[in-house]
UniProtKB/TrEMBL annotation:
Family classification: Belongs to the FGGY kinase family.
UniProt name for this protein: Carbohydrate kinase, FGGY
GO cellular component: cytosol
GO biological process assignments: glycerol metabolic process; rhamnose catabolic process
EC class name: transferase
Renumbered residue ranges of the record's region Disordered: 318-338
Low complexity: bias regions: 320-338
Carbohydrate kinase FGGY C-terminal domain boundaries: 256-469
Family matches, as InterPro entries: ATPase_NBD (IPR043129), FGGY_C (IPR018485), FGGY_N (IPR018484), Rhamnulokinase (IPR013449)
An example molecular function term from Gene Ontology annotations: rhamnulokinase activity
Entry EC no(s): 2.7.1.5
Domain of life: Bacteria
């Protein structure tokens, strides 16, 4: 059978990548064409995505992908992080750099939204977890600003990249559901919600669904890529988490998944949303997935907490090195010697030796969303809850990983209880697959086997939807997942250790998330 090659553009908050997938019946292989950093930039106090640099990374990646495949790409698919958007003028010009979801402009927006539409009604209509950065809160915060007032179109990030590549406008459904403006029962716009909030739905181009055509590369893009061969763009699950869940190599229906990267997205795949008041109180989301599915999950802070700690320690180490090289002595010297090396592998090795469950924090707490001072915020949370404060980077790292494992367990327990489903295994996909300590701790905390892999699940889910659309493979999600299972390297972790220690930690942890969400 003919082998097809597809390019998956996958932009995560930590890095962007263009990955080539080679697909034929029974065969699926990935090659990374290009990976580039995603470095947000603060301008006049507002945190922005550097969208042009990301787009340049996409172009460079596509150029490499085209060269590597002898200009033989069958199609291209695009997925990125959710909720954020760019605003276009009537002539298609991007009016401003997209604002980063970690920016604080949405402070107070939830109260404004609640005044127009009570949280219960909003959840019953959209089923979306309350997160301060959902698109509706961003739009409420931006209401009346010159840019939003001038905007003719609003494009979610994958739709913006797709527009630049093809000149075609569209709003892909899985990602549109994270705006909190989609009704998960009809899988169409929740017009009454938009109306209550004064949001103009005509800003959004028409909806398209995974598998729909999304245009063909513009001539100038082809020139940039050094090819003349016309290449179509296919809509995939353009929300990276939608693609990542397609990329879960499950072989039975009773699985839970955790997509771990910058975030941990932990939950179940359902065929209908759960819109109950209990579900709202537990802060569960019903995002829309590929093939009519619902991603019933909770957002957990994820490896962002660790990344930010490492960034802080590295900055401190660098500052100390420069202070000591100029001969100055000061208080930073002692900080640096106590932080030591912030190299991730060494840190994880040391964290594996640190006392288990010495202190745990609520990894669902929005207090950890913003950048900066992460080790201090973790220490404060431990102090506030009467637990020992981590003293070293290894102890802080262990605290983060124990806390994530505990939050994974709570999310899976809550999801099964609220949906009436049972789970026999937990799949971990995403960059966190490389963190063997986190995978083992999650198996221990859940008391369930963890199957870890693939790390590039979003790119794989992206490729699989393209491959099916092009006719390179056939079948529903179970068949796509069977192909993953038979072709991708996976590692299984069995629960070890004293499970009652996790029960005690869970009890100590209390019902913080539920209490917070219910308010
Ligand atoms: P995103 O898609 O949100 O950009 P990824 O899925 O790429 O994120 O995951 C990035 C995270 O994966 C990093 O923050 C890091 O914690 C983890 N990671 C990646 N590689 C390794 C590794 N070799 N060892 C341990 N952790 C890793
Ligand atoms: C993960 C993710 C997640 C969203 C967040 C904004 O990359 O898309 O699903 O909640 O970014």
């Amino acid at each position: 059978a003919t082998e097809h090659r597809f390019a998956a553009v996958d932009l995560g908050a930590s890095s962007g990548r263009v990955i080539v997938g080679e697909v034929a019946p029974g065969r699926l292989a990935l090659h990374e064409a290009h990976r580039f950093p995603n470095q947000p930039t603060r301008v006049l106090g507002t945190l922005h995505w550097d969208i042009l640099s990301l787009y340049q990374g996409v172009l460079n990646g596509l150029k490499t992908a085209a060269a590597q495949t002898g200009n033989g790409l069958t199609s291209i698919g695009i997925d990125t992080w959710a909720v954020d958007y760019g605003l276009l003028a009537a002539d298609g010009t991007l009016l401003a750099n997209p604002v980063h979801y970690r920016d604080t402009r949405t402070t107070g927006a939830a109260e404004k939204v609640a005044a127009a539409l009570p949280p219960r009604a909003l959840y019953a209509a959209t089923g979306i977890q309350r997160l301060p950065f959902n698109t509706i809160y961003q739009l409420i915060a931006a209401q009346g600003t010159p840019t939003l007032t001038a905007a003719h179109r609003l494009l979610l990030i994958p739709d913006l990249i797709s527009y630049w590549l093809t000149g075609e406008l569209g709003t892909e459904l899985t990602n549109a559901s994270t705006t909190q403006l989609i009704d998960p029962r009809t899988r169409d716009w929740a017009a009454p919600v938009a109306q209550a909030l004064g949001i103009d739905l005509s800003l959004f181009p028409p909806l398209r669904r995974p598998g729909d055509p999304a245009g063909t590369l513009r001539q100038d893009v082809l020139t940039e890529m050094g090819t003349t061969h016309p290449i179509p763009v296919t809509a995939v699950g353009s929300h990276d988490t939608a693609s990542a869940v397609v990329g879960v190599p499950a072989t039975t229906p009773d699985f839970a998944y955790i997509a771990t990267g910058t975030w941990s997205l932990a939950g179940l795949e359902l065929d209908a949303p759960v819109l109950t008041e209990e579900s709202r109180a537990a802060n569960f989301t019903n995002e829309l997935g590929v093939d009519g599915t619902v991603r019933y999950l909770r957002n957990i802070m994820g490896l962002w907490m660790l990344q930010e700690c490492v960034r802080t320690w590295n900055t401190e180490t660098a500052r100390t090195a420069s202070t000591s090289s100029t001969g100055t002595t000061g208080s930073t010297a002692s900080t640096a010697s106590s932080t030591g090396s912030a190299d991730l592998t060494a840190l994880l090795r040391a964290a594996a030796q640190a006392t288990p469950l010495r202190s745990v924090v609520d990894a669902g707490d929005p207090a950890f969303i913003a950048p900066h001072h992460m080790p201090d915020r973790i220490a404060d949370a431990c102090r506030r809850t009467g637990q020992p404060v981590p003293r070293t980077p290894a102890e802080t790292t262990r605290c983060v990983l124990d806390s994530l494992a505990l939050a994974h367990r709570r999310a899976i327990e809550d999801a099964t209880r609220l949906s009436g489903r049972t789970v026999s295994a937990v799949h971990i996909v995403g960059g966190g697959v490389h963190n063997t300590l986190l995978c083992q701790l999650t198996a221990d905390a859940c008391g369930l086997p963890v199957i870890a892999g693939p790390a590039e699940a979003a790119a794989l889910g992206n490729v699989l939807v393209q491959a099916r659309t092009a006719g390179a493979i056939t079948g529903g999600l179970p068949e796509l997942r069977a192909l993953l299972h038979s072709t991708q390297p996976l590692r299984q972790y069995e629960p070890t250790g004293d499970h009652s220690a996790w029960d005690r930690a869970a009890a100590r942890f209390g019902d913080a998330q539920v209490t917070r969400a219910g308010t």
